[in-house]
Amino acid sequence: MNIRQISIIGGAMLVAGGAFVWMRSQSTNPPVAQPIAVSEAKVETVNVLVAKRDMVVGERISPSSLGWEAYTLTSAATPGFFLQSKNPKAIEEFKNGIVRQAMVKGEPVLASKIVDVDAKTGAMAALLTPGMRAVSFPISPETAVAGFILPNDRVDILLTRELQFTSNGQSVSKVVSTAILESVRVLAIDQSVTQDKDKTTMLGGVATVELSASDAEKLRLGHKLGDLSLTLRGYTDAGAPTYAPPGTAVMNQASSVGMSADPKPPSSSPDVQQASQAVPTAVKVYRGGQ
Predict the structure, then answer these.
(1) Are 158 and 141 in contact (CB under 8 A)?
(2) pTM for the full predicted model
(3) In terms of Cα–Cα distance, which of 265, 251, 190, 257 is closest to 223?
(4) pLDDT at 115
(5) In angstroms, rounded to a whole number, what is the distance separating the alpha carbons of residues 122 and 104?
(6) Contact assessment for residue 217 and residue 172, using Cβ atoms and an 8 Å cutoff
(7) Inter-residue contact 167 to 262 (CB < 8 Å)
(8) Can you give the residue ranges of every domain in the chain?
(9) How far is CA 202 from CA 136, 139, 189, in A?
(10) Residues 230 and 156: beta-carbon distance below 8 Å
């Protein structure tokens, strides 16, 4: 074998060895797949009218109180939302509005939560529920829970008066107190329809409440008959309707002085009267000590 053949065989062996080493390295470290760029689907949004800060009932709206915020088409499809594409001048139209229901920052604005009024319309008329009346009467810290009653709270109105009647030919008087109206919405204390954020109480001399026409008459009659006071109800009763207990004895004009008959002393509650008529009374009779 000559030198040329030896060199050819040696070169072939080197090539074969290199190929073997390369194949081993490829089997140990497989090639890493290159990531494929995936373009995200574009989400379409629209601008919705929202509150830019927390707002309380009775507050007058300024242009800075409202603004536009991007919402997806699905979220913005809620009925009642104001879209900038359809209502571009909504902020300008609501700048003199009055808040009817409290709103928090970022909450979408609904027409039912804002009363759209012009500068000549009073705030009280805008706050009233359709068909209701605003009625005022005097209060004091002693009759209004020391000032803890605030606008938009719910209260019971109590009437306290002295009733006079005759019993066994003698004139007898009795002080009676009972609720003549329950779950009444407070509209204002004095001339304030909103609460000062830095105060937790509102001392005033006049309370304005929301009542129906017939309940307003009852309140005015109660104011003439005796003393009115308020009891505060909890937040769980915020949605309860106003209720006037029927047949309240303290409102009965026939219980005043000048009655010809000898009526029984009036009970403090109509429920007591109904219970006394419905439940029979047991009577024990004693004869000769038996």
Answers:
(1) no
(2) 0.58
(3) 251
(4) 79
(5) 24
(6) no
(7) yes
(8) 46-127, 133-264
(9) 16, 12, 7
(10) yes
Region for residue 102 given its phi and psi (left: phi exceeds 0; alpha: psi -120 to 50; beta: otherwise): beta
Range in 8-22, 39-53, 97-111, 228-242 with the lowest mean pLDDT: 8-22
Alpha-carbon 136 to chain mean position: 23
Other CB atoms within 10 A of residue 232 CB: 16
**Distance (Å, whole) CA 14 – CA 214:** 113
CB atoms within 10 A of CB 277: 8
Tokens of 270: 């109509």
Residue whose entry in the numeric block shows the structure tokens 């509150």: 51
Q: Does domain 46-127 have CATH number 3.40.1180.10?
A: no
Residue 243 pLDDT > 50, yes or no?
A: yes
Burial class (CB in 10 A: 0-12, 13-18, 19+), 180: buried
Instruction: Output the DSSP codes for the chain.
Output: --HHHHHHHHHHHHHHHHHHHHHHHHHHSPPPPPPPP-PPPPPPEEEEEEESS-B-TTPBP-GGGEEEEEEEHHHHTSTTPPBTTT-TTHHHHTTT-EESS-B-TTPBP-GGGEE---TTS-HHHHHSPTT-EEEEEE--TTTTGGGT--TT-EEEEEEEEEEEEEETTEEEEEEEEEEEEEEEEEEEETTB-S--TT-S----SEEEEEE-HHHHHHHHHHHHHSEEEEEEPPGGGTTPPPB--TT-GGG-GGGSTT-SS-PPPPPS-HHHHHHHHHSPPP----STT-
Q: What is the mean pLDDT of the chain?
A: 79
pLDDT of residue 29: 58
Q: What is the per-residue pLDDT across 104-143, written as a single tens digit (0 to 9) for each? A: 999 999 888 887 765 555 677 778 888 899 999 999 999 9
